[in-house]
């Protein structure tokens, strides 16, 4: 070891190891893992983040308009009742600064920061079969050994920056929303935004009233419903707090964990007038997940129901957008089966004089020039600033960007060459004592509740390992294969694989189109975790 681990204070239990556990990441996942392993289990923990402080997603995504689309009352940890009662918010959804403040408060409350070394990227994690330890290397030239490796690397964290020709010749500034520098003022500038996903929608809405001219480069039109981000007064907040004992069990046993009851009524079972009424009510109430899952139970599974929802949104676009040509370009022609989007008056933005929409599917971006962006047709858009709202190398991006090696030197990149795998979203064969938070093929939900469920399961598993004197644990290959099969089977029961989005890896050329989520809901997922424990961890192999 060539680093100082005195910061961890706790005595290391594992013979021959520098620390008991290394945790990577300081977002919701990593912070809670440090708390559970160090404060609850008494392990010695060294944690890292390449960021210069805590926050994860909410440290990096400081772009104008950055907002949660999970409602404020449930985009938080639930395990600590006092913390829940102290929670404060102003509107139905949390802004990026509010979430960052919340995670800072969390870190202070549980004295988490002392376990972290910030501004440090972990470059390699190698499992040493002889010692049964992980050897973790950082970009500061440090190495450290640990029995457990817990990765909270984030599933929407490794930024995707398409390599446009000539980008280095552009005289203005280029920013990616997922690595947004503090204090950028775009007022009065000619700004181009590439991308109209969840992030693009937020940044477009926020920038339109501020910049001189906004040019939106849209590849795929999106279905965007209103967000309904109204102020929430103290009485409303107090009411949530009074009901938390009912709210959290409901969230944990629901499918998407967004704090509402998913509908059990098929759209195909009701009249057209009734569908219209329900969709209009959801449109007025706002919320992307609510529109897709609270209205009817079959929008994500039945083509007819999906068409009904899609047609409703398309009619709204036609009503809102004044210029028919712009409305045509904004009209999606695929299924309504990506992560559902919402935003405040998104389509209204295109009625503004200072906003223009460019369809880069019809006329792709050819190159950046010193003055802006040139399309294949030769048309050039002059810009001072280009915003890449081009998303992420989602799910496995931060795993494949590290040199991860398991038994026999097998690399994660080899193992995942046809798509990421993983067992229960938390483990992988031949990678003993590796615990991933939001790893591949975990639940597709409002994420803090899933993070809590996973971190608690990981901590319980580690406690079991320590109590039983075990050296290693890893999934049996057949358990992992069965899990992937389960995820694939459930995914194929939905329409999601038929839409091109990051959920199946379709957002980046060359990325394998593979199943990346367990779409069976958080309730179903918790049941799967419980079954493993009830079976005495039979799907896993100890001390191989
Ligand atoms: P992250 O918060 O992504 O943290 C991962 C951390 O790991 C990062 O800080 C990164 O620097 C660090 N890291 C990665 N690799 C390394 C390495 N090799 N070495 C050192 N450090 C490393 N989810 C919802 O449920 N609801 C929402 O409304 C919602 N809104 C979102 C809006 C945006 C703009 C984005 C990008 C995501 C949103 N998400 C939302 C998803 C969000 O990522 C999760 O809710 C949650 O914050 C994930 O926490 P995490 O700890 O798993 O990962
Ligand atoms: P998304 O949803 O992946 O959106 C990225 C957008 O960028 C999307 O509109 C893409 O078009 C577009 N894109 C990507 N590459 C290109 C190129 N090369 N040219 C033009 N346009 C491009 O990422 P977000 O950050 O918005 O959201 C990700 C998640 O983070 C979100 O679901 C929330 O959970 C938070 P495409 O649709 O692929 O044609």
Task: Describe what you observe in this structure.
The chain has 544 residues and is an alpha/beta fold. The chain folds into two domains: 19-158 and 394-542, FAD/NAD(P)-binding domain; 167-388, no CATH class. It contains 16 helices and 24 strands. Strands 1, 2, 5, 6, 7, 8, 19 and 20 form an eight-stranded mixed sheet that branches. Helix 1 runs parallel beside helix 14. The radius of gyration is 24 Å and the shape is globular. The structure holds flavin-adenine dinucleotide (FAD) and ligand NA7. Ligand NA7 is lined by residues 156, 162, 194-200, 217, 219-220, 339, 360, 365, 389-392, 502, 507. Ligand NA7 binds at residues 156, 162, 194-200, 217, 219-220, 339, 360, 365, 389-392, 502, 507.
Using the coordinates shown, work out and report the CATH topology of the largest domain.
FAD/NAD(P)-binding domain
Termini distance?
A: 26 Å
State the name of the first-level CATH class of the largest domain.
Alpha Beta
Low-confidence stretches: 1-8
Bound molecules: flavin-adenine dinucleotide, ligand NA7
Q: CATH-wise, what's the superfamily of the largest domain?
A: FAD/NAD(P)-binding domain
In terms of quaternary structure, the protein is single chain
Provide the residue-averaged pLDDT: 97
Percent in strands: 15-25%
The total of beta strands comes to 24
Shape: globular
CATH architecture verdict of the largest domain: 3-Layer(bba) Sandwich
